[in-house]
Design a protein that fits this description.
heterodimer; A: elongated; B: mainly alpha; flat
Amino acid sequence: MHILVGLHAALGEAGALAFLWVLVELLNPNEARLRRARLAALLGVFLLLASWVAGGFYYVTEYGAAVKPVIKSGPLPWAHAVIMETKEHVFLFLPFLAILAWGLLSRFKGEFMRNRNLRIAITLVSGLVVLLAFAMAGMGFIISSGFRAALEATAL
Amino acid sequence: MRPHLTALAWATSGVVWLVVALTLSAELSAPFKAFLAGLTGHHWTSKSVIAAAAFIVLYVLFKRMRESENILGSVVFAVVSILLGGVVIFSFYLSHFIVL
């Protein structure tokens, strides 16, 4: 257990919830709800950027030396070879997608209500941010399970 | 502040495919992975820095384009790029694991 892993997961999930908040505000939009959605999206961008930094710092300073070799020698080596490798690279898409969602909400402040394509675009992007961020959490669970399984195999 | 949305969507798509290319190239070429690691001390940090820098550069470049009236097409392209990029990366590591 490491504080940076908790921080990375907490910031990432808070980012996902911020974009879920965006989706909820857009269900029945008016000016006040759009203002809150813009605020939630901006908050989500900062949370995901912070999660990137916290997770990256842990990955570079701790994971490679202390966790990766244990998982690779354990009963679930694919938890690193497939899941972690996918997670560490697909995560890089998230902050940029979040910035795009914030940009969409910020650019057409007055047009949102009458522009159906814009509403579809924001819903698509925000929804994908939520799905990807929760997928990252699921992958994190699998990686932790791989580490725990390796430790249990050593202890038993 | 009024962001240029076409540029933002295209920069997002560009970064996705750049990350996919960097990831696959680094796994297929040990010297390239070592080169990336040499830039910042770790290949993943280098990919992160390159992705962030590329996003800014691509946004500035695409900003010169006229903004599209229909943003949905560019956004759908970015969304599809992310889904396909994720599938390509996952499939690559899965096949790599099964073969080795």
